[in-house]
Design a protein that fits this description.
heterodimer, A: mainly alpha, 6 helices, B: mainly alpha, Serine Threonine Protein Phosphatase 5, Tetratricopeptide repeat, 16 helices
Chain lengths: 165, 307
Amino acid sequence: MGNVQRYRIVDEPAPSGVAHLAVRPLWPLLGLMLGGAWLAWPWFVLNAIALGARSKTRLLAWIGGTIAVCLAVAGPAVVLAQGGRLPQIVVPWVGFVLVICKLTVGYVATEQQTQPAELHAHFGGRLRNGLPIVLAAFFLGRDMVARLLHSIDGDAAAIAWLVLS
Amino acid sequence: MNVSALLAFASRQMAREDHAAAVETLRMVLGTDPEHAEAHALLAICLLRQRRRYAAEHETRLALRLDPELPNAHIAAGWVSLAANDLARAEEAFREALRLSPDEVIAIHGLAEAALARGDRDAARAELERVLAIDPENVGALVELAKLDLACGDHDAADTRIEEALRIDPESPKALVARGEAFLRRGDVAAAREHAIWALRQSASSPSALVLLSNIKARQSFFLGVWWRLNTWLIALASSRRVFALVAMYAIYRASITLFVQLGLPSAAATIELVWLLFIVYTWVAMPIFRRMLNRELAGVRLPRRF
């Protein structure tokens, strides 16, 4: 049977140069919750490549869409708030909309990557522990991003923080 | 390589719910002959049982393209449509399979499943009786009829059918699991557990046996039972609905906090925060405890290496 070719099923992980960086999608999701979108979005994309997931384009579309929606909500809200024209009662609801938006995409990405991660592990691939990255993002990353954004002009920094946090 | 022997072997593995092994057998067939429509169709059914819907759809398309007159290709298309909850298309595919091969009991079984998905138990029962008229020793149909009897509260009729199924195939995981479910409904947890373990010894990867064993564990502990029910409810949902349910839970939590703070009720907001925190801790803690309990149970079962 030595000359028999192994039939490859379409959803099996395709070999990739970064396969050793694959993690369970739970970790980027926790990264979103404890670190922020600045960590989660690139991590989800890297993980999709590492897992050889077939939904990379859809994932990029979801992430691009959520960034656009967050910008569309945060931009006017920050400008209105700076001018004192945003009622105080509305401010927490702006944050609410942004969080729900990001969380939805986080869950969608997690759903998209759950089965590829299981298949990756099933076919002998290694899944790394993402906890150190999540902890580093929680204790150090948020502060670093905030400090980085502090150096930018006022309104843009506030908008960027709302979109990336 | 004897392809027909391998296909027959894969069919037997599928009948024993050992879909992982069947996938490997069919992979061998397709490695030799990538244009084998029957192997693609059977592979599609196995992949669907493993909840790999995308791959199952792909294999079904290949099977239909290679041989549009192959009954099993239409059967695979029917199961794929059923998994996508497209009942009309599923029934159409099963009927097409029956047009090509009128005694194809799996297609009739599919029609019964579609009727069940529509909530029409009478039609499902009629289709399963039709399977038995063609093949009186069809264990799958007997077990499904027993489940319908159980759902209607007719335990005696269910017992008779399960006995009959076990007489035909004493080691059928499906029949053993059905018997375990019947015991669990009567509150006989020990007998239910015995049957789940017995079924797992026959087929280590039998999903229904694992679900039965998990149900037994959930029944033994209220703390874990609630988690298991919440978990199975979430898993049973379609992906988009699951995302919606999870986001909705969080949205309700966040919205109520914001609302209570704005209404000047900080203590109510703090209570909700505390309840949410406890809920998070509970879901995190319950999962590993449940898994450990299940693993301890499975440690006593001599399972094949691939499990």
